[in-house]
Amino acid sequence: MNTNHPAAQRSPLHDFLAPDSIAIVGASADPTKRGYKAMVGLIKDGYPGRIYPINPKVDMVLGVKAYRSLADIPGTADLALICTPASTVPGLLEECGRKGVKGAVILASGFRETGRPDGIRLEQELLAAARRSGVRVIGPNTSGMFNLHKKVNLLALNNVKAGDIGLISQSGNMLLALVLEAERNGQVGFSTYAGPGNQADIGFNDYLRYLGEDANTRVATLYVEGFRDGRRFLDAAREITVLKPVVVYKSGSTAAGQKAASSHTGALAGSYAMTVDLLRQVGVSVVQHSDEILPVAEGLALLQKARGKRVAVVADGGGQATIASDRLTEAGLELAELSEETRQRLGRILFPQASLVNPVDVAGSSDANPALLADCLEIVAEDDQVDSIFLVGMFGGYHTRFAEDLLGGEMRGAESMIELARRTDKPLVVYSLYAPVNPPALRRLHQAGLPVYSSIEHAVRVLSALGERGLYLAARAGDRKLPTVLPNRRAQAAFAAAQAEGRDLFEFEAKDLLRAHGVAVPEEMLAGAAGDLAGIAAYFAEQPVAMKVVSRDILHKSDAGGVRLKVLGEAGMRVAFDEIIDSCRAYDPQAVIKGVLVTPMARKGVEVIIGVIRDPVFGSVLMFGLGGIFVEILEDVAFRAIPLSYDDACSMVGQIKSRKILEGVRGEAAVDKDALVDLLLKVSSIVDAYPQLAELDLNPVIALDDGYAVVDARIIVVRAAAGKNDNPREG
Predict the structure, then answer these.
(1) Whether domain 606-717 has CATH 3.30.470.20
(2) Which of 174, 399, 418, 580 registers the highest number of CB atoms within 10 A of its CB?
(3) Sign of CA dihedral 686, 687, 691, 693
């Protein structure tokens, strides 16, 4: 990280997550106490720094001199582990501040997580004490922390290997599961762990910045139940993912985003899918299943990235080659199309019955010479159409399956693979059905830094993460800087009037705002009374028109019978006008109706939706998907945090499952995707320019083969009342 940049200051967490001295407040000789376990962990692992047990009742704890209070220790401590009850914590933080302690780990529960007023109040007192004393707080309600390179093992975990995976987990059990999995793996190790607990002070964004700067961490891995400040985490991740991989497993959905909302976008926001989209937008590798966390973290730590998503598969069995192909395709990866030269070279060393297209099935060619697999890998690695290489089958177990004297050939093959991995920038990922027994050739690969997996699915997830990271970094390097949009005076006045009247923008005001910033909106006219229709009908001549009620009190016009389509001529307009007014009066007798908006019918095209909400966790978020009445049923949408980059906008259009409809089906012309991308970028810029905008729905937008038409526009306004915000999505 460029520490010369003013925004890139060194994280203060270094001062206590890599401590040279530790005070254990509540140190104990009772094996059932956390103060005992922490002491044992430090002593057993040979912590070289100073340990200060704090216990007023004893002179020694496990052979280490004890002190009655923090005030009695000589000098200071970088870190205090507080193992005492919740009620004692605020006072102890004050003591820490007076003694110059930089950070404190608060194990106690009984704070905000209880949901009780006394717990919430106690956490507020804790935070106030921490702020007054200048002490940073891990927790409360945390499982603790370790830094294995500093031999700080405050959890007293056994058989935990020091390595390069940094871990932040809101679940202590998830930490234990990963530690046990790493022990079984035998090659994976950890750098720093912290349990953020309630995140009263230090949040995920702070931990991520620390891991991004930590020289002992090659990949940052996070188990997240909930972000307290998702926008700050996205900002941190955008910086860190350029430097090193970040892996996140997000459990559940964003509870803060589940409130009722008054727009389609608001109804769909706050979902797990939205969180995943936003994390991926900033380069985070999101894993969907808990058993993928460690394999993906290991693979990214060892291999970092691939140039793209084109994978060459070399297999020694047709069945597993097919399974690998299925899983790769499902993961959005591509089977690389091997060049003619590559196929010819493979044909010269393999049996005639071997398959030379991707996946390459050696069809028994390696049974008597397993080192031949390494030769195949070498050949496909030199193909320019290949971004990464996937070895699938029973490598490592040939000497067990066929003959013991094949072990030498397997070891020679392993050395050749290691040498290949050193020479190429194309990642080599190995799946072996013999991985669970860890035979010598696989041990050698692992020791040399090549990941070996016992699951095709895990291996494919690693290949997917490598490809996604490579493409993300390439896009970041070449992304375009977009111009800033300045607010329009007329639009500012419309927002001010709406706020003063306690309403949202009328549809025609919303469309005026869009027009002012270059968005293609069809012409329209407002009929305040039936007498206005003669002039409007003459202006639009014989064009069929759409007519829609304009009322501050009627958000969903169709539900109120406030829409008529394909209306022709003045006589038709008068009938439609009366029907709309009568239907809306019946729907809501108290509704204030400003009039009826008349606009030419849009050409036939594909209906899409573009929406914006101000999410309470992640801030301004833009949504794109198939529009019309099915948007909330299909939920085929993509989300990105605002401001969007050009690549963000392109990826949104390409992400939705129904994208083939945009490409033209059953003889229909493909829509103008460039125009949609331009519209997404314009909307992003508009939202940045108008903080008064709370939610926006453009639904539908008619995507055409030569542009688009915004048919309906709704903008919900941030309420202006001081100290109160009536908009349910703001917070």
Answers:
(1) yes
(2) 580
(3) positive
